[in-house]
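Discussion board: Methods & Data

I've been asked by a reviewer to show the raw model output for two of the constructs in my manuscript, not just the figures. I'm not sure how much to include, so I'm pasting the format here to get opinions. Each protein appears as its amino acid sequence followed by a line of C-alpha cells. Is this the kind of thing reviewers expect to see in a supplement, or should I convert it first? Here is construct A:
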Amino acid sequence: MQFTTTALLALAGAVSAQKVHVVSVGSTNGTLAFSPDSVKADVGDMLQFQFRGGNHSVAQSNFDNPCSPIADHVSNTTGIFSGYQPVAASQAMGMIPTYTVMVSAKTPLWFYCSQAKHCQAGMVMVVNENTAANSTRSLANFKTLAKAATANIAPTRASGGTTGSNSTSGSTGSGSSSGSGSSSSGSSSSGSGSSTSSGSDSTTSGAASAASSAAAAATAAANAVGVSSSMGLLGVVAAMLML
C-alpha cells in the first residue's frame, strides 16, 4: 500500500491537533468534585473522565436545570450519562474506570454527578463556559442553582460516550463503546446517545457525542495523569513515512 507524503503529513497534523482533556471524578479521599471543574475544549477534542474514588457518574444537564437530565427539559435530546462506575472493583485490578466523549461544538456543556446529593454539594462542572456571551451563565451561578435543587435525578440509561480503563501504573488501557454502567443499588443501564440541539442556553447534546473509534484511541493514549492522544497515532504516521 502506498501513501503520499502530503496525505500522511495532513493526517499527522490532524492527529496532533486533537487533545485529550482529563477530568478526575471524585478522589480517593472522598472529595465530591470534578477536577478541573471548568474546561476549554475545541471541536474534535476528547473529554476523558477518570473515576478516582467512590461511586460517581457524569450526567449532562442544561444550565437552568442542574441536577436533572437534559433530556427532561430539551426535546429530542439524550445527552451524556456515564452510568455509575465501579471504582473499587477496577482499582482492585490496578485499573481506573474512564468515560470518554468527543466535543463537536463550542457551546457550553453542563455536567453533574447524579449520585445521592452530590450535585447539590457542588459536584458539577462546565465545558466551554462563555460568560462573554451571557455573564449570568457562569460556573459559580450554576453551582448556586445546583445547591437549591430539590432533587438529584439520574438519566434512565447510559449514553453518549465510551467506557474504558487506564492502568494505575500509568500504562495505557482499553476502551469499549458499550456505554454501560450500574447504579449503587445494583441496577444496570445501557444505551446510545443522539446528536440534536435545543434549549435556552444553546446547550448541544451532540457537542459531546460518542465517537467509538476516536474514544478508544483516546483511552489508550491518556494515562492516569493525562497525556495528548496524538503520540501513538503520530508513531503510526512516522512508520508509514518510512515505507
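Construct B, same format:
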Amino acid sequence: MVICGTDLFSSLLPYVHILSSSSTSTYCCQCLNVSNDLKRCSKCRQISYCSISCQRQDWIYHKYECEHLHTITNEYDLTRLFLRLILRYKNDHGIESSSTKRCLTDLKTHDNEIRNDRRRYTTFQLIYQQLKQWNIFDQLDETLIFQHFCRLVINTLTIHDTIDLKPIGYGLYFDATIYNHSCFPTCHTIFNGKYLSIRTLSDQLTDEWTINYIDLLEPYQTRQEFLRENYYFTCQCKRCLKNDPNEFILLEKIHLTEQQMDKSIDKLDYLNAYELSKNLSEYYDQLLPYYHAYVSLHHVKHLKLELLLAETLSYLILQSTMKNTCQRVQISMGERHPLTEETKKLCEEYRLEMAIKQKQIN
C-alpha cells in the first residue's frame, strides 16, 4: 500500500530544459530559481544567470546558440529546447543514468500523426532549417532528427514556479514519461527549480499512477480538444467518462470567484476576499484531488487572508487553519519543499507575534 504524499520519484533532473522567454527577468536560465542578482550574458544579452557556476553549466549548450538567438523569429522556446536535445544526444546517444533505465528512443514519437499534422510538421521544418544553418546536426539523419523532435514535443513537461505554480519553463524528464494522463490524477508533478518530484495524491489502491498533462480547470470539451491536438488521444478517465453537465457551471463559478478574490485583494478588501476564498475551497473540493498542488496553494492563500484578519477572527479558527494547512501542504508538496517551509514560517511568525503581545499584556 502506498501512502498519500509518497514520492514515486524524487528530485529528478531533466535530460534537457529551458527557461521560457517570458521568465528571463526573474529566474536563472540554468537552475530556474528566482534571483534578484541576475547577470546577463555579455554577448547575446538575452540569457541571464544567478551565478558563475550556472553560467558555466549552461555554456555547453549556450555557446552554440548565443550569436544566433536574435535571428529566431518563431518558436523561440522550442528551438532552444530542441537545440539542447540534439546537442546532448550527440554526446550520449540519448542514454541517461536513471532508476528506470529509460532512454530517448524509449519515448513515444507519434511521428505519423505529427507528419500529418500540418501545424506541427510546419513547425518542425522551420526549426530544422534554422538549426541546420547553425551547423548543429552534422551527419545526423533527417528521419532520426524528426523522430527526436516528435519525442520532444510529445513528452516535454511544463515546469512551474516553486511557490505560485505559474509556468516558467519546459523540461524533458525520461522517468516521468511512464505516466499517462488523467483529468482526475492519482499523482502530481512538483517542481523545485528544475528538479521534479512525482507524488501520490491518494492512498487508495489504483490500477495505474497518472498525472495531468493539462490544466484541470478547463471544461470537458476544451480538455479533449487540447489532448487530441497535442497528444493525439481521447481521454477516457473517470472524470471524462462521467462528463457531468454541472461541471461546466462549477468551472464558471471557480473562474469568476478567482477573479473576484484577486480584485478584492488588490483593493485591500481582505474580508470580502476571505469569504470568496471559503467558497473557492468548497468548489475545488468538488472537482480536484484533495491534495493536488493547486488546491494546496489556494489553502496557503486562504491562511494568509486569515492572518491578515486575525484580530476579527477566533483564535481557535486560526489555530485550526494553521494546523490543517501545514498538514495539507506537507503531504501535498513534501516536508522540505519551499512552499511547505513558507507555510510553516507564516505560522511560526504569527505564534511568535501573539506570544510577544501576550507577554506585553501580562
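Answer (T.O., handling editor elsewhere):
This is acceptable in a supplement if you add a one-line summary per construct. For B, something like: The two ends are 51 Å apart (CA to CA).
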